[in-house]
Specification:
Immunoglobulin-like; 8-stranded parallel β-sheet; globular
Length: 732
Amino acid sequence: MMMMKINREALFCDETEDYRSPYEPDTGDTVCFRLRTGRDNADSVFYLEPDTKVRRRMRRVFSEGRFDYYEITMELGEGPVSYCFEIRLGSEVCYYNRLGPEDRADASYAFEIIPGFHVPEWVKGAVIYQIYVDRFCNGDPTNDVETNEYIYIGSPVQRVSDWEELPENLDVGRFYGGDLKGVWNKLDYLKSLGVECIYLNPVFVSPSNHKYDCQDYEHIDPHYGVIAEDLDLLVDPNDMDNDMAGKYATRTADMTNLKASDDFFAAFVEAAHEKGIRVIVDGVFNHCGSFNKWMDAELLYQHEGNYEPGAYISADSPYRSYFKFNNKDGWPFNDSYDGWWGFSTLPKLNYEESEKLCEAIMNVARKWVSPPFNADGWRLDVAADLGRSSEFNHKFWRRFRDAVKKANPEAVILAEHYGDPSSWLDGSQWDTVMNYDAFMEPVSWFLTGMEKHSDEANESLFGNGAAFFDMMRYHMCRMQPQSIQAAMNELSNHDHSRFMTRTNRRVGRLASAGAQAASEGISYGIFRQGVVMLMTWPGAPTIYYGDETGLCGWTDPDNRRTYPWGKEDQELIEFHRYMTGIHKRYPAFRKGSVRKLLAEQDLIAYARVVEGWKPGSHAQALGRGFARADFSCLETGDTGHLSEQFNRERRENESRAVVAVNTAMEEKVAEIPVWQAGITDEMELHRRMLTYEEGYNVGRIIYEVKDGMARISVPARGSIVLVAVRKQEDEA
């Protein structure tokens, strides 16, 4: 007689609401934990805390189809709780943690609860649209930067009169005129695209077009807002400094312009909110710019009369402690300050030695998420590099979170970060991250074999389904579930090559390959695959402006081309509308579990699932009056006692979908084990999207499920999105 073994493919648990309720608990809350096993495939199941050695037997409380469900309730104390599960069948022992089934209880990959860690609900799965303001839309030509308005990095700035002109290799001092009025004018377009939140690259007063060198954190740049007072005093093209930059000084330092621009921003956010669109602003707090009023290395503010002397000018400046000067006798015009990565144009802020600076930034943090401005959160640039030590950085961001959340509890704190973010996502600092490691990089490698800058190609990762899931699983293990659901997933952004360009699978940059090469050999099929994965993977799908119309570009600065108004690829835009609609329509894509179904060379399939019933809910439905922790009367797994109302409500709440992606140059046919996603023979799979090299198809095709398997064909360089529907219950 053959010994029965644990069916590891039937085991499942994660940290979504289907398997932990509540999944964002507070200290003192009673939490119900759930684990799924194969039916009659375990002698015993235990809840384990590897760190504390707590080990408690779980009860089988429910059986359905191929599966048994085990639960246990625990009251949370203070501090984090790490846990996993132990499954026993005969002499076989298996453990289940964030990596899935394992042969040992590895504490480093245990599930974790951080009591009190709450991420705003609105951002979980929200469709975000990133805008590089100067290149999106020029709504008000009167606020455009003028040629020779000031000197930036040794050269006069330039106004680009031709909206379609491509960026140059050294592009930071060239301006196209995009502004907040332009974004305001396009709110209806963004709404039609399915956008729920706008992420604006920096909008505070700054001399560059990227504005990651802040000049004044307390005000919106009038070049993006309103110029009410002006002065006809431009620099000479041969000038080496800004001593005669009267126009620029008036535009960016006159309080009339600053107040008018701040008021305009407040009105803009209100207009966005009226359309159901939130607004996230970009905070660059690791460094500022040499133009910054606290430093004033460009000598712009010394002539304005209403400003204290900058730290560059005077040793007695109230801002001297904001920067670290290496020459204690270098005044006036002390240029010995520390710069970020050694750049004198990017003075490093000296938080450790200046409590006054810390409080100034806290005031900025509070100001923009509070009335009348009411921004909905912060994206934090190079957040982990803020101070001079990791210890201080953690302390600073705890203080920052406290300031922001007290001002606006619904504001999100989202950080740019590379590498393991776990120490920052502990409930006391950031809410989530820009998801390079657990989305952008694995997707880019799998679909294109290209690194996100187009700096490297790796053929071994192209179409490698096993490597894709391994990378995703490992990096997602370093994040809390609420952080995953809110993570900013992107195919492109202002720091990396456009994903459409990466589809040509060519290494290059603007300086080496030229602008034209960025659009040569591109694949619309691969691009659509990327969009499908963007809209169906856990997180907040984020569209980088222009991606939806097929904009190309190498990495910075070529990725900052202007939006092609009037020359858009309307078919591609419509495809994005379909995909944002699918993402928003089915709860599984916004907050559901993700489950690997197939990982082959060139072909992957995964499921997104909302079970429709939270742990412990069946017990409440029975209404027998027993304590939640006592499920002894349910050990048989008899579901017959469950009311028809409960079953109906569950069916109404459940959401199951399957996504398959084929990177090969020929069609792939596969038997997909959809039973692992709880998709049974009583269900059908309705096609909602099919993509291929030449286009896409939203016509509905029904796929049968037989013995828990679905036979699916995926076109070359194509993808498919399927939604499970119970037979006799046509999709609404």
